Amino acid sequence: MKIELKNLHKSFGSKKVLNGVNLTIEPGEITVILGRSGQGKSVMLKHLIGLVAPDEGEILIDGVNIAKLSERELFPYRMRFGMIFQNAGLLQSLTVAQNVSLPLIEVRGTDRSKVMDQVREKLKMVDLEGVEDQAVTTLSGGQRKRVAIARALVQNADCMLFDEPTAGLDPPISQTVDDVILKVNEETKATVIVVTHDLISAFYVGQKIYLLDKGRVVHSGTPEDFRDTDNEVVREFFQRGVTVTEARQASRSRVSGLQKLPGK
Question: What is the pLDDT of residue 249?
Fold first, then answer.
């Protein structure tokens, strides 16, 4: 799936959230959207799945401007996306298997007796075999994120959207989630978009990175482009998070990470 945002603007009341965003996301790539809180990252994701309409600009999905589509026309495009929410978004009253199977049963109308093979397959992909009957309340934060990824995977989505996937997780668990993101991309060839302010994660998984500041893209490029730039906004962002050296180590470790994916 190829995604293009052209001159995207969005305000809520007097607050300007997106101020002329332009970016291109190539099919099959892992693209990271970086930025501090309140810079429009999550709002941008909502535009991609049609939950928010722009005030101005275009949202092109494989060349089709979905900003001009009706709710009915949007439906098949929404079905092509899998969304992993920051808090995982699992239903606490359901088991792991029931959560993962929700898109199949509630959206696609698949018979309940025919979903378990797919549920087990996707849980295995995120390295969570044998937890189908567990209550989600018994899972750790990292496990919940992986169940949410499995739920998105069961839709066979063309594009996976990750909203702050490592938020609230300690470093070892964050690493596990990052490795699962790499594995998902490698095995499904899906386009992946990761919204985060976690620089280590961004440089570890990202093939292309966009930095949002004050509602617009202020720098874009590969991890190498970011670590070598003299852009003052990028440098300031580094100072708030990790050093350039740490970013360099994270981007270099991506290759070794691909070799150590779960199940490899």
Answer: 57
Band of pLDDT at residue 260, cut at 50, 70 and 90: very low
pTM passes above 0.90:
no
Residues 176, 186: Cα–Cα separation, whole Å: 15
CA 169-1-52 angle, 5° bins: 65
Whole-number Å distance between alpha carbons of 93 and 96:
10
Say if CB 82 and CB 161 are below 8 A apart.
yes
CA 168 to CA 117: how far, in whole Å? 31
Are the beta carbons of 234 and 202 closer than 8 angstroms? no
Give the pLDDT band (50/70/90) at residue 240. low
Burial class (CB in 10 A: 0-12, 13-18, 19+), 188: middle
Residue with tokens 């999550």: 42
CA dist., res. 244 & res. 224, Å (int): 10
Q: Average pLDDT of 65-82?
A: 91
- pLDDT score, position 37: 79
Residue 230 has pLDDT above 80, yes or no: yes
Q: Residue 132 in contact with residue 96, Cβ under 8 Å?
A: yes
Query: Which of 88, 99, 228 shows the shortest CA–CA distance to 165?
Result: 88
Residue appearing with tokens 């994916």? 261
65-86 in b/e form (b: 16+ CB < 10 A) is ebbebeeeebeebbbbbbbbbb
Cβ neighbours of 92 (radius 10 Å): 8
